[in-house]
Amino acid sequence: MCRFLAYAGPPVFLDELLVRPSASLIAQASKAREAKTAVNADGCGVGWYGERSEPGLYRGVLPAWSDANLVSLCRQIRSRLFLAHVRAATFGEVATANCHPFAHGRHLFMHNGQVGGYERLRRRMDALIPDDLYAARKGTSDSEALFLAAVGQGLDRDPVGAIARTLRDIVALARDAGEADEPLRFAAVHTDGETLHAYRWASDGNPPSLYCREEGEGIVVASEPCDEGSGFWTPVPSGTLLTVERRSGARLRMFDPLAEEAERRVRAA
Amino acid sequence: MCRFLAYAGPPVFLDELLVRPSASLIAQASKAREAKTAVNADGCGVGWYGERSEPGLYRGVLPAWSDANLVSLCRQIRSRLFLAHVRAATFGEVATANCHPFAHGRHLFMHNGQVGGYERLRRRMDALIPDDLYAARKGTSDSEALFLAAVGQGLDRDPVGAIARTLRDIVALARDAGEADEPLRFAAVHTDGETLHAYRWASDGNPPSLYCREEGEGIVVASEPCDEGSGFWTPVPSGTLLTVERRSGARLRMFDPLAEEAERRVRAA
Amino acid sequence: MCRFLAYAGPPVFLDELLVRPSASLIAQASKAREAKTAVNADGCGVGWYGERSEPGLYRGVLPAWSDANLVSLCRQIRSRLFLAHVRAATFGEVATANCHPFAHGRHLFMHNGQVGGYERLRRRMDALIPDDLYAARKGTSDSEALFLAAVGQGLDRDPVGAIARTLRDIVALARDAGEADEPLRFAAVHTDGETLHAYRWASDGNPPSLYCREEGEGIVVASEPCDEGSGFWTPVPSGTLLTVERRSGARLRMFDPLAEEAERRVRAA
Amino acid sequence: MCRFLAYAGPPVFLDELLVRPSASLIAQASKAREAKTAVNADGCGVGWYGERSEPGLYRGVLPAWSDANLVSLCRQIRSRLFLAHVRAATFGEVATANCHPFAHGRHLFMHNGQVGGYERLRRRMDALIPDDLYAARKGTSDSEALFLAAVGQGLDRDPVGAIARTLRDIVALARDAGEADEPLRFAAVHTDGETLHAYRWASDGNPPSLYCREEGEGIVVASEPCDEGSGFWTPVPSGTLLTVERRSGARLRMFDPLAEEAERRVRAA
């Protein structure tokens, strides 16, 4: 399990959301309240959009609370769109390449959850990554494999469909591998630098916590409220997708990657 | 605050005491039960005596639970005398040079506690280190300064007296600096490779926790019991010094570095 | 390219071979003389056999010359069989998981050379690793993939045959992938804790440098001589395998993994 | 010895000067041409001014060429004033706290050179740091001590005078300590976020190399030319100070911190 925070809206300094709040993401590294593991000290990372089309990326293996570089960057960088993450390793060593967010071209992705039985499914998940993307596989985590598989599924032109197809594929391969009992739990944020998508879904109906809040004219999405007065935080319902777009603002809709498959089965029957 | 464990006795593999127990030191890195801070993830270290007169030393900045080197070393090394430590930084960056144990010649030292007001006393404490030892100052922690000051006080030929004089000096300089209200809390282990000294003392009568236990024909000293069935662990009383020698075994005696000073004052009055 | 050194014989302290010589492996990290790259500062590692059946393993990402842990370990550990390596990354991030030696059960392996076109062959090479070993893949280097593939080929019961078959497989898949022009260059050491095998071979007849020398009653194998008076170092010829066994001592023989294939083709024709 | 580069002028992306040139600072980390040591791989750092009054700071212990964070930051950050440094440690462990640049309030400082005999002078140099700045001493390098001493000498209101007095003090204490034969060599850049000062001076007339070049309407100062066509680089003469101000542009003048003292002696005689 891990903890994360994302923001989309008018440019803000990152430290306003990541460092200053009483229960900031950095504080959650040592004392998360709604995570399976209170300690999320297996590395940290931040990705942000500035003047380039591709995002900036900083990742490190130290616990967030002792990473002076992270704090200095958060204080300097002002961004209209950024993702930040503190990791509690499930599978995959503590290594920079296993820290979130993951970047590919103009895309950023981060994940909190688990691919049940990943240790046994890893090779099959790697097989979901297309040949031409395989060189981009730098670490050994389930999250990076999931992201690259989604890139291969067309994240660029059909972001939600690509994520849905990837989750469906993983559920299918777990079932084929006799790991059907192992749940796929997925709280994640993906962005192409313009639109932000935040997902909360699990194959067993029990996804990790996810909240959102208005921040001025922007939107914050986070694993858990990051300030004490958490009155303004709204839980994101299980099985939904929160989309934040520059023009049209935030929108919540149902998200069930298995639905289409269920539908297909009905038709096939 | 930090957590530590030391052993003296017939040679044992380090992992028997540091890795395998249910509440091992490595487990305490993320979940200590009797420490001020449950998380002790600001680095770790182990020092041991093998075939050389001076000890081996391994220290790293990652949390102990994700340090594969530490686990491999503990599994390979068998030693009659070793010290191990997981750090929760109070003052001094997360850096190898600030990790315990500290080594000097054939001596090893580790500490759990605090020098109250250290941030303001640091220069005065550095001044306690003799000129010829100052080049050995590699980090910025209070514990290293205390150790080098004690080396300067004659740790080699009068180990207990040197520690006592150093603690007395620190209490005096805190008083002179108007920091008398800040307590000096000291749970520590020092060894010259033959005799092990474990101290538990505080200027305000409130030292960090310390326990000991027989382990076969050897003795274990630890910040807190490292297995669930903690029936055999004996608390080391506040204001005492536990000495373990090869021939004469373990011995507990009173330790009050300020007593001599009190005596002096009485005489002077 | 990288530099390495291995030793088999009566127990010696590691620092005698790794630290003290004027052109020691640690010195070669910043100034190798016979390597493609003079700087080999992308991490370092040492594996050794002690009292356990499986080896100890220490690996770190800092350049060897600034790794105080490495020096302390080398000074403490005395071993009858050890491997040491300093890395110059070709493919694979600077990360602990990409540092040599690699360990699997009681086996140790390290490599200096290249799998030509690896970036394009990586997926195919990963496919050489059997399913039940895939979870042991921790990094992204060609060397680790080669090692795990060899484990899958039966390194345990037929060490030389397993390496030969693996090299043959890699040459074949490179040919199939249209990378036949890219050479496979292989200077490597493998041991199961008893017998040491040092290989020097390349598909284009141009393998990395490799030397050996008697050290008392033991044998040292190294990428290049590690002392100035290099008179006693013997170059290991290209296309040979040096085997060191406890009882029978050192033996040099021809090694051409493609020979059997050539033979097979002749037969098939 | 180390290598560095600084820029002042219209905002540019950092990678244009630090990453893209054929002999960029990152390339100099493994292959400097005019440094005492060709390898400058003991850490790296960059400090820059953005929207805040105090600078951003990124420092890491890995060699610059393998630091993906450094490259990403250089690609994202656009700045009118920045300093970058790759380190070859003389004294002071490889640790983040010993990496340049050093920051204090709105000041940045970096140094290439040596305080001769520093290991023996260290305590005396620490004594040059005023009490209220001593808590800001995070590492053990001569450069950080020199910088904090200069802050204490009034770097804020009299930048050049403060540096001159500090250098004079160090020369004096070296003389008093019987280290007069050990040279003080000083190529350094200091800035308060507005004006950039680049110094090249040595007590033995033999300072490290330093060059400058026009870059559009800005000025680059560097230890050595960072592109092959080095025709436009001008050597900064020994014993001079290059000052770059927003309004008045670049100006070169004599700099001899000992001159005033010589003068004083003449007067006193």
TrEMBL record, chains A, B, C, D:
Transmembrane segments: none
InterPro entries, alphabetized: EgtC-like (IPR026869), Gamma-glu_amide_hydrolase (IPR052373), GATase_2_dom (IPR017932), Ntn_hydrolases_N (IPR029055)
Domain Glutamine amidotransferase type-2 as annotated: residue spans: 2-247
CDD domains per the UniProt record, alphabetical: YafJ (cd01908)
Gene Ontology molecular functions: transferase activity
This protein's UniProt keywords: Glutamine amidotransferase, Transferase
Pfam families: GATase_4
Keyword Metal-binding among UniProt keywords: no
PANTHER family according to UniProt: GLUTAMINE AMIDOTRANSFERASE DUG3-RELATED
Protein name per Swiss-Prot or TrEMBL: Class II glutamine amidotransferase
Protein's organism: Plantimonas leprariae
